[in-house]
Specification:
Blueprint (H helix, E strand, L loop, with lengths): L1 H14 L5 H13 L1 H36 L2 H7 L4 H11 L5 H11 L1 H5 L2 H34 L9 E7 L5 E5 H4 L5 E4 L5 E10 L4 E6 L13 E2 L9 E6 L6 E9 L9 E4 L11 E4 L3 E8 L8 E5 H10 L23 H8 L3 E6 L1
Parallel strand pairs: 6-11
Antiparallel strand pairs: 1-2, 1-13, 2-5, 3-4, 3-13, 4-5, 7-8, 7-10, 8-9, 9-12, 10-11, 11-12
């Protein structure tokens, strides 16, 4: 017990940069030789980062409370005049806070009546409105990041890990998933339906379409049989029945629904909207039609909307596969089946055939 506590203290000093060069080299050598120690280091780093995120959230909350305590909304309605200099002062003072967009919206709404009677200053307030819109976009981006950090800590599998789902695109261990699942991770693993875990590395990323391709790099991994599904080359229609298999918890979960829109978030033409209920761990999971054609990959869900999700279209999966230099793949090229082996099978039989090709992604 004492040795474990001493090792934990050394690991923390190492992560905080308190060890000298000789001590640092000794610990790094131990990490290379002992997988348990390496796992401890990675887990402790994730813990420290999580604590940092929590502290940052508390800081933002305190800033929000401070700003709101300073703003007298009722007083503003009777005393505020349309002088941009006052607004600019408030902007400069509070621009780093997450509540800045809401604060400016209040000021802008109170000033509408005066703006209508002062055409010379209308242009200045139009510019201010643009600033407010930009602030809102920045705020929403920050909120999405905080939500992602909060939800990933509750994702399934080993404590101090986060992840989602991925699926095989070759028999020799190439796995496709979402880029946001693995971003910032020090170590990556996949776990199959039998509970076996394998070390993987990232070999390709597409930030624009939130796609990543991983390669199993583990001597204990045995090549898979022929991929049972094919990748659809045409666009799916609204109302088309689809399903997904993913890991929102420790075992695979089936989700069924249909294509509800040919476009995704804010009209994004690279995505579908599908009527399937998903959770954070479903990200990166395959979307298939009744014939076993891969039509997309789960990438997220609308805020405050249950029973809906966004899926990256299969076209961009094919583009990602083609982007990997074929000469780096050896004899096992990333090729697409011309015919699905799932066509004509009942759903239960289709699930039996694909479950060995869908993996839980574990990022540390």
């Amino acid at each position: 017990m004492r040795n474990d506590l001493e090792l934990d203290a050394i690991i923390e000093d190492y992560l905080l940069g308190k060890l000298n060069a000789q001590e640092t080299e000794a610990l790094e050598q131990l990490r290379r030789n002992d997988a348990t120690v390496d796992h401890k280091v990675v887990s402790h780093k994730f813990f420290l980062e999580s604590m940092g995120i929590f502290a940052e959230q508390l800081r933002l909350k305190d800033q929000l409370n401070e700003i709101h305590s300073e703003i007298d909304v009722e007083g503003l309605a009777s005393t505020l005049r349309p002088h941009p200099s006052r607004v600019v002062q408030l902007w400069r003072k509070h621009k780093s806070a997450i509540a800045v967009a809401a604060s400016f919206i209040v000021l802008s709404l109170v000033s509408i009546y005066s703006i209508q009677h002062n055409t010379k200053q209308a242009e200045r307030y139009r510019q201010l409105s643009n600033q407010v819109n930009n602030a809102i976009k920045t705020q929403n981006s920050l909120i999405r990041k905080i939500k992602h950090n909060n939800t990933t800590s509750d994702k399934p599998n080993i404590q101090n890990s986060f992840g989602g789902t991925g699926f095989a695109i070759s028999t020799n261990g190439y796995i496709l998933t979402n880029l946001h699942i693995i971003n910032g991770a020090d170590s990556l693993y996949v776990q199959n339906s039998k509970g076996e875990s394998f070390k993987v590395k990232s070999v390709y990323t597409d930030p624009q379409n939130d796609i990543a391709i991983l390669k199993i790099n583990d001597k204990h991994f045995s090549n898979l049989s022929s991929i049972p599904y094919t990748i659809k080359r045409t666009t799916s229609n609204i109302g088309e029945i689809v399903y997904t298999l993913g890991y929102p918890k420790d075992d695979a979960v089936l989700g069924e629904g249909y294509v509800s829109s040919k476009n995704g978030f804010i009209g994004d033409t690279t995505q579908y909207q599908v009527a399937i209920s998903v959770n954070p761990g479903n990200s990166g999971g395959p979307i298939l039609d009744n014939n076993g054609n891969l039509v997309g990959i789960i990438s997220g869900k609308p805020d405050q909307t249950e029973g809906a999700a966004f899926a990256i279209k299969s076209k961009y999966i094919l583009e990602a596969m083609r982007a990997i230099p074929q000469d780096s793949l050896g004899v096992n090229k990333l090729s697409v089946n011309k015919k699905s082996l799932l066509s004509g099978l009942k759903r239960t039989k289709q699930i039996e055939k694909i479950q060995d090709y869908v993996f839980m992604i574990k990022a540390y």
